[in-house]
Design a protein that fits this description.
heterodimer, A: 6-stranded mixed β-sheet, 5-stranded antiparallel β-sheet, 11 strands, B: mainly beta, 4-stranded antiparallel β-sheet, globular
């Protein structure tokens, strides 16, 4: 069953603006991951945040995790046209459960 | 030097046919997966193998049969193809069965006519 739900489904911004995408999930997790998918390509891992972490940075990416609200956000600062892609959150549970992906947010960055 | 490679990238076939998609990873990972991405971009897990052993088999019709000849390969065979099988199929791998990031192939777009 689907775990993560991204919000919004689509987002269109101007180059240089910040983009924020949210993800909500339903069950307990070991970690939460964000992936990017360019049109017609495979998914690429961006960042992983563990359940005992609240915030993580990687370059222009900032991820937060609130396990009490079962939610995460991905912030891309100073967006570029090349950031145009779909962004997915994925939750990693216990045992041998596979990563469960949300439906994704389609980000368009207009130059 | 491709980490996870799938072939073919595109596959167009008639209903009722049988087809296979191959996947190989050169990362030395123990766990491999097949995901299906539908037209709305929803990614759904189909199968998971750890060291050639099936560990997860989601509710997938038994027309789909995965085969892992060794831990670097996970192939997907589909019998009696139906229109609803049209999708992009992604192979992925990771080091362990319950931790770490996934490495994805570029996908195999299957179109059933």
């Amino acid at each position: 069953s689907q775990q993560g739900e991204e919000d919004p489904q689509a987002l269109s911004i101007q180059e240089g603006e910040n983009a924020t995408m949210n993800c909500s999930y339903k069950t307990s997790i070991n970690n939460l991951q964000w992936y990017r998918q360019n049109s017609g390509r495979g998914l690429v891992h961006l960042i992983l945040i563990r359940s005992n972490e609240r915030e993580k940075h990687s370059g222009r990416l900032r991820v937060t995790l609130d396990t009490s609200k079962k939610s995460s956000s991905l912030l891309i600062t100073a967006s570029r046209a090349a950031d145009t892609a779909s962004y997915f959150c994925a939750t990693d549970g216990s045992g041998n459960t596979p990563l469960v992906f949300g439906k994704g947010t389609r980000l368009s960055v207009i130059a | 030097d491709t980490a996870v490679s799938q072939t073919p990238k595109y596959l167009v076939t008639q209903m009722g046919n049988d087809k296979s998609i191959k996947c190989e990873q050169n990362l030395g990972h123990d766990t491999m997966y097949w995901y299906k991405q539908d037209s709305k971009k929803f990614l759904k897990i189909m199968f998971s193998y750890n060291n050639k052993e099936l560990i997860i088999n989601e509710t997938v019709p038994n027309r789909f049969s995965p085969k892992s000849p060794d831990k670097a390969h996970l192939n997907l065979h589909i019998n009696s193809l139906e229109l609803g099988d049209s999708a992009v199929y992604f192979c992925a791998s990771r080091r362990g069965s319950n931790t770490g990031e996934l490495f994805f192939g570029e996908g195999s777009r299957l179109t059933v006519l």
